[in-house]
Amino acid sequence: MLDLFKGYKGRALEVLKHFQARVWGDTTVQTTRGDFQGIILPRSENDDDRHIVIKLVTGYNVGIDVDTVLGMRETGYKEAHYKIPEKEFPFTPGLPKVKLLGTGGTIASRLDYRTGAVIPAFSPGELYGAVPELAEICNLETEKLFAVFSENMGPEQYKKLAVSIGKEIHKGIEGIVIGHGTDTMHHTAAALSFMLQDLPVPVVMVGSQRSSDRPSSDAALNLMHAAFTAGHSDIAEVMVCMFGPTSDEYGLLHRGTRVRKMHSSYRSTFRTIGDVPIARVTRDSVLPIKTDYNKRRRDNKVKVLPFFEERVALVYYYPNMHPDIIDSLAENGYKGIVIAGTGLGHVNKPVYPAIQRAVAKGVQIFMTVQTLWGFVHMFVYDTGRDLMSMGIVPGENLLPEVAYIKLGWALGQTADPDQVRELMLTPIAGDITAGEPYNGYLIFQGGIPEMEEFIRTYHK
Ligand code: ASP
C-alpha cells in the first residue's frame, strides 16, 4: 500500500527520510503527476535539492519535483556496482589478431553518479570485461589513446590515430577497431580514409548511442559486429559499423567518406549518403551489398599521410547570410573554405563581393550541397555560373563534412592551388563517385524489414 499522503513540501533528503526511502532503492513514487517506478539515484553535485532522480525501468533518468510527491514505497534494494573490472583478454590460437584503439565517447562510458553525467570511463580492458563474447571472435589487444567525447576530437587526434594504426599494421595486425563517440565519428572516418591509403586490413569505427548502463544499449552488439568485421571480413577500408535497423537485427558497414550521423538519438543513426552501405554484418557473418571495395592483403603495408591544415572552415549557407562571414575568415588567415550551399550549390548575391575578396587573397573555396544526396551542378543557374567565374570550385558529390576534412588534409600537404584542386577532385576513398544508385536512398539502409523484402523481390 502506498503511503497516501497529501503531499510533502521540503527538500529532497527530507522527503526521502519522511517516506523511509533510500538511495539505490527500487521504489514506487506516487506524485500529483502519476506514479513512477524505478531506482532512486544519488544526487549529483550539480543537481538542486528540490528533485529526486530515479532511473526508470526503460533506462531513462527522470527528476521528480519534491513538491509533487504524495508517497514512496520501496520494493527492493540493491546497491549499484558500476565499476567493471579490467580483464586480461584470453588468447585463442587460430583467431585473428585485432587491435581495439579507444578514443572515448558513449561506447567507453558509464553514468557518473557523482555528477549525473555520462563520462568516458571504460578502458578498453573494461570493455572486454563487459563484453566477454569478444573472446570468441578474435584475439583482442586494447589501447586507450584518448578518453574524450567526440566533439573534442580534431586534427591532432586524427593524426595520432592514423600514425598509431599505421604502426599496428606494420607490426602485422589483422584488423583495427576504433571505439569513438558517435557525434563526430563521420569526421574522423573521413580523416582516416584520406590519411590511411591502400589499407591491407579493415579499420572499423564503432560507437554506441546508448550508454552501457541502459538496457537498450547498443554498445555490446556494435562492438561484436565491429570486432567480427575487423578480424574476419575482407573489406580493407575505413568503415563505420553501427545498427542497421532500429532493432538489433544486423549492423551496417558504411564507407568512411560516405557516412553521416543522421539522428540524434536512434541507435540506427548512421546512414550511407549518396551510395549503398558496403555490407551487412551479424555476430558471425559479413554479407556484402557492394562488390567494388578494397580487398584485404597480407603485406602489412599502408601509406600514412597524417597532414592537416587547421585554418580551414565549413560554412553552412543560410538565407540572408552576410558577406562579413566570409570576409572575417579571409581576414583571419583562413586558407580554405568549404561552403554547403543551397540546392545545386548556391549562395546569395550579397556574398559575391566577399567571395571575390577571399579568392583574391588566395583562399581556396569549394562548393558542396546541403541536400547531402546529389551532386553540385553549377552550370544550371546563373548563380552557379557566377560563383564559378569568381573561382569557387564545385565539389562534385563530396559530402560537406568530408570536403572540409579533405580540404584540411590537402592544404596540410600543399598550398599550390592546382595541386589542392587536383587532390580535392580526385576520388581517393569513394569520397567522389560516378553516380548514385537508385536504391541507396530507399533501401539497404536498415529500413523496415517487410519493405526491404518487398523491394528485393520486385526490383531485380
Ligand atoms: N557525445 C558523445 C560523443 O560523440 C555521443 C556518443 O558517443 O554517441 O562522444
Provide structural commentary:
The chain is an alpha/beta fold and 460 residues long. The chain folds into 3 domains: 2-77, SH3 type barrels (Roll); 97-304, L-asparaginase, N-terminal domain (Rossmann fold, 3-Layer(aba) Sandwich), CATH 3.40.50.1170; 312-425, Rossmann fold (3-Layer(aba) Sandwich), CATH 3.40.50.40. The chain has helices at 12-18, 124-130, 134-137, 155-171, 185-195, 219-232, 324-331, 352-360, 382-389, 400-411, 417-425, 449-458, and strands at 25-31, 34-40, 51-56, 61-65, 69-77, 97-102, 109-111, 118-120, 139-144, 175-179, 196-197, 203-206, 238-243, 251-255, 259-261, 270-272, 279-281, 286-288, 303-304, 312-316, 336-341, 364-369, 393-394. Strand 20, helix 7 and strand 21 (336-341) form a beta-alpha-beta unit. The chain is globular, with a radius of gyration of 25 Å. The protein starts with 11 loop residues before the first helix and ends with a helix. Mean pLDDT is 88; it is low at 1-5. Bound molecules: aspartic acid.
Describe this protein with a few key phrases.
460 residues; alpha/beta; SH3 type barrels; Rossmann fold; 3 domains; disordered N terminus; binds aspartic acid
Structural class: alpha/beta
Quantity of strands, as a count: 23
Report the portion of residues in β strands: 15-25%
Q: Kindly report the spatial arrangement of strands forming the biggest sheet.
A: 9-6-10-12-13-14-17-18
CATH topology descriptor of the largest domain? Rossmann fold
Mean pLDDT: 88
What is the CATH first-level class name of the largest domain?
Alpha Beta
Give the cofactors and ligands.
Answer: aspartic acid
The CATH architecture of the largest domain can be named as 3-Layer(aba) Sandwich
Query: What is the terminal-to-terminal distance?
Result: 62 Å
- Uncertain segments: 1-5
> What is the share of helical residues?
25-40%
CATH homologous superfamily assignment of the largest domain: L-asparaginase, N-terminal domain
Continuous helix count? 12
Query: What count of structural domains?
Result: 3
User: The biggest beta sheet, please?
Assistant: 8 strands, mixed
CA radius of gyration: 25 Å
